[in-house]
From TrEMBL:
Domain of life according to the entry: Eukaryota
Annotated source species: Leptosphaeria maculans (strain JN3 / isolate v23.1.3 / race Av1-4-5-6-7-8)
InterPro entries noted in UniProt: Fcf2/DNTTIP2, Fcf2_C
GO molecular function: RNA binding
Protein name: Similar to nucleolus protein required for cell viability
Subcellular compartments: Nucleus, Nucleolus
UniProt feature coiled coil, ranges: none
A Gene Ontology term for the protein's cellular component: nucleolus
Pfam families in the record: Fcf2
Lineage: Eukaryota, Fungi, Dikarya, Ascomycota, Pezizomycotina
Keyword annotations from UniProtKB, A to Z: Nucleus
Domain Fcf2 pre-rRNA processing C-terminal: 107-202
Sequence segments annotated as region (Disordered): 1-21, 33-65
Record has Nucleus as a keyword: yes
Amino acid sequence: MESLPAHQPLLGDDTDEELSDEQIRELFTEAAQRMQAKAASQSSTEAPFKLPKLRPGHIADTYETTEGNITRLDKSKLIDKEQQALASRIKKIDDPLQIRKKRKEEKKASAGAQWFNMPKTELTPELRRDLQLLKMRNVLDPKRHYKKDNSKNDVPEYSQVGTIIEGATEFYSSRLTNKERKQTLLEEIVSQEQANGRFKRKYDDISKAKSSGKKSFYKALKAKRNKGKYDDYARRRKTTVTRTLWPSGLNAHRS
């Protein structure tokens, strides 16, 4: 096997002569020319890269005008036309305190969704009388007992008055006639009192109990006693007269 030389022979000559400066310069020049030719050949074969042209469309007008060394801004172009139209109109300024007060009043106008938006009580004289009767309902019927109400305010904050509509069943037994039907609770209670007279009897019993032991009580008792004495005297008087007349009548009958 042949051994290769350690270095490339120069110009086919095996002499160990040193190169001069001119020869070295020529070698560098040739190498540079080869590199330039190689780069030119590569650039000619490859197509150059070009950026596409942009189409920006209409470019907005500038709002800057320069006059000499002074630059001015056009205020009409700084704000949109819609915003300019809104700014030029008459503005209505709402007081935040009034808005808050209005919202609070609207909130207090009803009891809320949890209570079916029950409206605030519109107090009328008829409604006040009905509410007072409801508070005293334990007096109306002595056989019914209700929970005692200790509230000082007779009028609730939220209330609503409705009308009971009778159903189609039990037409004759569960319905009221037009004469029996009343508009308010007070009229219904008065009509019931005229029918049974329970309140009048209750009033007489209470008056009698309260007047016991007073001057009027003793006057009535004295009058009652005097009336009893007179009746007893009249009864005895009548019996005496009858006994006196009986014998004469008997004699006359015998004769």
